[in-house]
Amino acid sequence: SSGINAECHYGRDKVLQVMETLKDNTIDIAGICETWLRDANSPITATIKSYGYSILHNHRKEKKGGGTALIYKSSYKLAVFRSKTSFSSFEYTAATIRTNTVLKVLFVIIYRPGQMSALFNQDLDTFLSEISSKCDCVVLGGDLNIHFDHSNNKLYQQSLDILQSFGMKRHVFDPTHIGGGILDHVFTLSLNEQFDCITRVDNMNVLGSDHFPVYCDFRLVLENKHFKDIQYRKLKEVDLDLFGEDLRSAVGECTVTGSFKSVITELNNVTLKLLDQHAPLISKRVSVVNTAPWFDKEYRDLRKLRRKAEKAWRKSKNDKDLLVKYKDSCSSCSDLALVKKKAHFKKVIDRAEGNPKTLYDIVNQQLDRNQSSKLPDYTEDLPKLASDFNSFFVDKKEKSPDCDSALIPLL
To answer: Could you tell me if 212 and 201 are in contact, meaning their C-beta atoms sit under 8 angstroms apart?
Structure first.
């Protein structure tokens, strides 16, 4: 599995850049600090879901800024983890997921704002005491705003000592901030060495944040909740010369007697048997990932050009002109995604003209609002349903004497 630890202030354009980055790098789980989200559901969370991802996040309800989130592929099932203790020195979002080998992994994203204090180390010790025994492995990352390389700061060193005392392994050693220094960290805990973590700091700053994203490869296969079985052939590996000789020989041996239908059937059977010999069918189970409906061929082709520009830049070892070209490609992809999205929903709204229910569904989808049923759930107590239904009309009659008695059911 792959992950990313990043910091960004969500806006319309920024969320498109983030989601494009997740898609391009096939990120399974992303930890985000300083989301600046104000509501549990919003157009921003709707955009995230349109890319085939889900989001768990904690936002500040009474003031601006801050916020943490875990963004993950919708094909995975995460269980939210909440500590029994409330912490005032840091914000966090945590969730567990199982791997295909039934390992239980806890992902934690932490944001520590403000000045460093002894309270943070107390809270950190309490938090680690709780989570270290909850699962098989722990991945803890985020913007801790701690320079562990400043050995003269006792509070910083105390934080590192606490993390290491719980067996947490540090993985980031390159600068993660535009002004230098390592502020964003990734720590892992795996007592039985069930997995490893390889990190890479992306300092080209495509997202435009003052913090660089940190990419992680955990060498884990996460458990999917949605699968489908597919079959395919490795046609590119077929020896065309040998296949052509066998095909000519097989067709030459075919009889041309009988009806036209029988000849075609025999020819199909011969060629299919030959194809099975050179490129046998391979069965594979893959996870189902939702794709935004506006992802058309033009958009996919532009994404390919962007990936090509990125590879050329990385291969050049930091050529400035190629970096500018790559960043321009990123901006073009984000702009086109927005254009495609607008065009798609304009068509959907035009088709729904005169249908208020469909229009409301579209609005709710774009605002990521879940419409709960206003009807009570009586599926397991039908007699109570009948009694409450009758009482409602009886009360209505008593409150409105002029009400037609024929409207009151006799149950």
So the answer is: yes
Distance CA 152, CA 197 (A): 29
Q: DSSP E strands: which ranges in 156-312?
A: 169-170, 184-190, 198-201, 214-217, 227-232, 282-287
Average pLDDT (129-148) is 89
Q: How far apart are CA 94 and CA 105, in angstroms?
A: 10
- Sign of the torsion angle spanned by Cα atoms 67, 70, 74, 78: negative
pTM (predicted TM-score): 0.68
In whole angstroms, give the CA distance from residue 29 to residue 282: 29
The count of residues in the chain is: 411
- Name which of 124, 76, 105, 71 is nearest 188 in CA terms: 105
Q: What is the pLDDT of residue 374?
A: 55
d(C-alpha 43, C-alpha 66), whole Å: 18
Hunting for tokens 């304009």 — which residue is that?
346
Q: Could you read off the pLDDT of 164-182 as tens digits, one per residue?
A: 999 999 999 999 988 888 9
